[in-house]
Specification:
By secondary structure, the chain is an all-alpha fold. Helix content is 73%, strand content 0%. It has 14 helices and no strands. It has helices at 2-14, 17-22, 25-56, 73-95, 98-101, 106-119, 128-144, 155-162, 165-189, 194-223, 232-258, 261-284, 292-319, 334-345. The longest helix is centred in the first third of the chain and has 32 residues, at 25-56.
Length: 362
C-alpha cells in the first residue's frame, strides 16, 4: 500500500506536476477573474460605441477631437461596465502571471463581435464562428500550460525588476515610439490608418499592465497584513497606472469612433497582447520558470488565437463587400471618400474616413 502510494505520488509529481504547477490556487483565481473581465469589457465596447454614435449626432465626433460623448449617459454606462471589467482584470493580475491573464482578452473580442452584429448592425461572416473556436482553443492551451505566479514578498521586489536594464530599455523604446506616433503620425494619419491610434494604446498598455500587476501585488500583500502603502514605489506605480489608463482611454475612444468595432477590437487585442507578453517575459522572467515544451505550447496557443483574430478581421471585410484588409491602411481616394461619407450617413463606421476629418485633430 505504501509503495503504491509512493509510486502514485511520484507519478503525480513528474507527470501531473505540470498541471498542478500551472493551475495553482492563485492561477485559478486569476482565471476566473480574467473570464469575468472579458465578459464586461466585451460588452463595454459595444455600449460605448453606441454612446459615441449617439453623441456624434448632436456634437463634435470623438474621432476629430470632440468630447460631446462625456455628456452622453449611454457612454458612461459603457465606461462603468469597462471599469468593472478592468477592476476584475486588475485583480486577476495580482493572482496570475500576465502570460495567462492577457491572452484571455480574446474572449472579450468574441463577445464584442457578437454584440456588434446584433446591436450595431456590423455584419459578422459565418466564418467568424470558426474564429471564435480558434480563440477558445488557443486560450485553453495557454491556460493549461501557464507558468506559476512568481513569489513576491514586497513591492520593492517588483520595483527592482522594473528598474533592471532590460526592462528599462524596453520602457524607453516604448515611450519613444508612442511619443513619435502621438506628435508626428496622429495629426497626419490618425483618421486613415487604424494602426496609429491602436499603436499608441497598445504600446502604453504594455507598460500599464506591468504597473497594474505591481500595484495589484502591493494591494494583495497589504490586505494580507503586510502594508505596502508605506513604500514610495507603490505610489510611483499608481501614478504610472493613472497616466497610462488616461492615455489609453483617449486614443481608444478615437479609434472606436473612427473605425469599425470589428476592426479595432482584433487589431488592438493582437498588438496589446503581444507587447504585454513581451514586457512580462522581460520584467517578470515568466519563461525562466518553464521548460521549452511549455513555452512552445504557449506560443502555439497564442498563434492560434492570433489566427482566429485575423480571421475575424478578414471575414468582416468580406461581409462589408469584399474590402481587402489593406484598405484600412491606405489614404482615401476620391471614390473612397464618397463611400466613407455614404456609410457615415447610414451609421456604419468603416476603416476609411473622409478628408473633412483632418480639419480638427486633438
Amino acid at each position: 500500500m505504501d509503495v503504491t502510494s509512493t509510486t502514485a505520488a511520484s507519478a503525480s509529481a513528474s507527470g501531473g506536476g505540470r498541471w498542478y504547477t500551472g493551475m495553482s490556487a492563485d492561477n485559478i483565481k486569476g482565471l476566473v477573474l480574467a473570464l469575468s473581465s472579458s465578459l464586461f469589457i466585451g460588452a463595454s465596447f459595444i455600449i460605448k460605441k453606441k454612446g459615441l454614435k449617439k453623441a456624434a449626432s448632436s456634437g463634435v465626433r470623438a474621432g476629430i477631437g470632440g468630447y460631446s460623448y462625456l455628456y452622453e449617459p449611454l457612454w458612461w454606462i459603457g465606461m462603468i461596465t469597462m471599469i468593472v471589467g478592468e477592476v476584475a482584470n486588475f485583480a486577476a493580475y495580482a493572482f496570475a502571471p500576465a502570460i495567462l491573464v492577457t491572452p484571455l482578452g480574446a474572449l472579450s473580442i468574441i463577445i464584442s463581435a457578437v454584440l456588434a452584429h446584433v446591436m450595431l448592425r456590423e455584419k459578422l461572416h459565418i466564418f467568424g464562428i470558426l474564429r471564435c473556436v480558434l480563440c477558445v482553443v488557443g486560450s485553453t492551451t495557454i491556460v493549461l500550460h501557464a507558468p506559476p505566479e512568481r513569489e513576491i514578498e514586497s513591492v520593492t521586489e517588483v520595483w527592482d525588476l522594473a528598474t533592471e536594464p532590460a526592462f528599462m530599455c524596453y520602457a524607453a523604446v516604448v515611450i519613444a515610439i508612442a511619443a513619435i506616433l502621438v506628435y508626428r503620425f496622429v495629426p497626419l494619419y490618425g483618421q486613415t490608418h487604424v494602426m496609429v491610434y491602436i499603436g499608441v494604446c497598445s504600446l502604453v498598455g504594455s507598460i500599464s499592465v506591468m504597473s497594474v500587476k505591481a500595484l495589484g501585488i502591493a494591494l494583495k500583500l497589504t490586505f494580507s497584513g503586510m502594508n505596502q502603502l508605506i513604500y514610495p514605489q507603490t505610489w510611483a506605480f499608481t501614478l504610472v497606472v493613472i497616466s497610462c489608463i488616461i492615455t489609453q482611454m483617449n486614443y481608444l475612444n478615437k479609434a472606436l469612433d473612427t473605425f469599425n468595432t470589428a476592426v479595432v477590437s482584433p487589431i488592438y487585442y493582437t498588438m496589446f497582447t503581444s507587447l504585454t507578453i513581451l514586457a512580462s517575459v522581460i520584467m517578470f522572467k515568466d519563461w525562466d520558470r518553464q521548460n521549452p515544451t511549455q513555452i512552445v505550447t504557449e506560443m502555439c496557443g497564442f498563434v492560434t488565437i492570433l489566427s482566429g483574430t485575423f480571421l475575424l478581421h478578414k471575414t468582416k471585410d468580406m461581409a462589408d463587400g469584399g474590402l481587402s484588409t489593406s484598405s484600412s491602411f491606405r489614404l482615401p481616394t476620391s471614390s473612397s471618400v464618397r463611400f466613407s461619407k455614404q456609410t457615415d450617413e447610414d451609421g456604419e463606421g468603416i476603416p476609411l474616413r473622409s478628408s473633412e476629418s483632418f480639419r480638427s485633430l486633438h
